[in-house]
Structure to design on (228 residues):
DNA sequence: TTTTATACCTAAGTATTGTATGTATATAAC
DNA sequence: GTTATATACATACAATACTTAGGTATAAAA
């Protein structure tokens, strides 16, 4: 029998988004992530800073991200990049999410496009 | 500007699943829901009872579900049905979820099938 | 000069879910 | 006949994520 997927009913979609964005972009800073998400979703999805920064710190503490601070126009930016482990984990979590969404579709009988 | 969708980053997917299952089925009891979800997902998704029963009680308290107890083969079953408000709310939450998933796809650039 | 945008951060509260446990009956296995 | 499994409900506690609300600071625009 399959091991039941207890994996968090998607409550961790924020960290997956962060990891996925960094898979494509090499490095990003926190504020940039909030703007990029707004841009990609035409303003419909907003990541709050109160959720984002703790999530970034956690991913860094888990060894999935590394950070380096850089001064740009007199303001300090903290750039994050995926570590080697982070790349692996990003792929893994994306697969988990995809599997969860497929199962969710089965339960909700969503249209294939969703 | 669009009102940002702060709607809970999908952490409430369980209640949406319950509402959606009841949209199609008229009435179900708790244990039946756990089995139906297992069946629909070929055992890959398991709803824990510790999450399910409080969720059902909450939906009932919110007036979205009504419950009636019925004895079947010497065991008491608690059947839940959508109220009129529950039907409306079910449709609303499904729409919210669909919107959220679309935005998630935009951020994650998932394949159309997901 | 004040507001807006940029850029970071944390603390406290809320809400959902998982783990663990409990009760009880019916049926199947031993 | 006893034990294990399936059915069927329930709650308490812990873990965790996210929201709300606030704080600091610089640059640019009004």
């Amino acid at each position: 029998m399959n091991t039941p997927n207890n994996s968090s009913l998607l409550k961790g979609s924020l960290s997956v988004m962060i990891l996925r964005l960094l898979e494509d972009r090499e490095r990003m800073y926190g504020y940039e992530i909030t703007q990029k998400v707004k841009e990609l979703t035409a303003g419909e999805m907003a990541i709050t800073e109160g959720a984002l920064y703790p999530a970034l710190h956690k991913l860094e503490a888990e060894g999935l991200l590394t950070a380096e601070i850089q001064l740009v126009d007199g303001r300090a930016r903290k750039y994050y990049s995926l570590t080697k482990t982070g790349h692996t984990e990003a792929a893994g979590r994306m697969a988990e999410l995809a599997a969860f969404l497929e199962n969710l579709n089965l339960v909700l009988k969503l249209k294939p496009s969703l």
About this structure: The mean pLDDT of chain A is 89. Residues 84-108 of chain A form the longest helix (25 residues). DSSP finds four helices and three strands in chain A. The interface with chain B takes residues 1-2, 4-6, 9-11, 13-14, 16-17, 20-21, 24, 37, 40-46, 48, 94, 97-104, 106-110, 112-114 of chain A (CB under 8 Å).
